Amino acid sequence: MHTANLGFKIPVLLSLAVTVLLVLAPGCSGRDSDAQTRVDAVEFRFTYADIGANRGPRAAALNWWAKELHRRSKGRIQVDISWSESLVKGRDVLKAVGAGFADMGTVAAVNTPAEQILWTFGGQPLNETDTWVAMRAWHELREVNVAFAAEAKRYNLKVLFHNGTGPAEVLCRDELVKTAGDIKGKKIRATVGFIPFFDAMGANVVNTMGSETYAALDRGIIDCTVGYSALIRSYKHYEVADYLLLANLGQNATYGGVINLDYWNTLPADIKNIITQTSSEYVDLYARNTMLETDDAIKTLQAGIDGKKLTVTPLDPAERRRWSAYVGHYIADWQKKTRLPKSVTDQFISDLERLLEKYRRERDDIGYPWERQVQTYDKDP
Question: How far apart are CA 307 and CA 28, in angstroms?
Fold first, then answer.
């Protein structure tokens, strides 16, 4: 028997509150003692609660990560991924992993912005457009910024890796939008930083779960959504929309993989090292996957999939500069919502900008990691 699994086989239909009670009930020895049993067993089976489907560039990288952990640990690590919110709903992953219901999971600040307010800054409109630069900077930011590290620790989490989406675009069902004037009055699905951004343009902003986007477009609940080319294709949003504005609004860097901190602290050093190193390489692989997928997706969406084509139009550079005037609305709104001293948020932004510049220089000087040498991951996972 693999004691590295918490052993929960109950239906996931039970609420998170009931789940937590089960963890603490007599007969369930509690997180600390159970984790120690797992360490003594020398084999570590992790349950992983994911919020997306098993397709697309992120899923490919996550599958590689799980398999590579198993290989590098010579079978001592096993990660069992539950896809598409089948173990825990997206809004509950933060609490579920923190409480020990799931060992690991993908958390998104869009689902719990109050608890992850600093991380929501990764959704700032018109931020870093290079996926690898953004993911690398956010990955290191967690290590160097005290307030950011404390944000995860407060909920009994350790962040293993950060994700990015590729550049944000605007996907619309019935009408192409090309200007801020076109945005006014439109029902647009947006999250985190794009909420005050499009609200300032006069849009009727709808904040729904990413998993609800297809149905919302299909039923006309929304006119448009902030989307990402690679995900538009892999999640088939092109089936229920006709127009794609290549606005290149920056990354959504507000989500990533976490592990229960109590459990992490019980793991032996060699297992921690394997997870840490593999998670760092995951960042490079996922960034590369996303960049390749984004370029290919735009071409494919324009050419047509099963006879369905999107009208693809780049945002005029002059219009994009006009849109940049609305970013200030987001930053002011974000700083107010953090309820932190301005010195803390200023330091956070300064650390992020410094790291973004660090990885821009690294890219320019020696190229992306996959251009420098043979990687441990396959070229086409």
Answer: 54
pLDDT of residue 110: 87
Q: Percentage of the chain surpassing pLDDT 90?
A: 76
What is the spatial distance between Cα 19 and Cα 342, in angstroms, rounded to a whole number? 38
154: number of Cβ within 10 Å: 12
78 neighbors 4 (Cβ within 8 angstroms): yes
Residue ranges and CATH numbers for the domains of the chain are 16-164+253-291 (3.40.190.170), 168-252+297-336 (3.40.190.170)
Q: What is the pLDDT of residues 102-149, one digit of tens each?
A: 999 999 998 999 999 999 999 999 999 899 999 999 999 999 999 999
Mean pLDDT of the chain: 88
- Closest to 128 (Cα-Cα) out of 380, 323, 365, 355: 355
> What separation, in Å, do the N-terminal and C-terminal C-alpha atoms of the chain show?
31
Question: How far apart are the C-alpha atoms of 249 and 129, rounded to whole Å?
Answer: 7
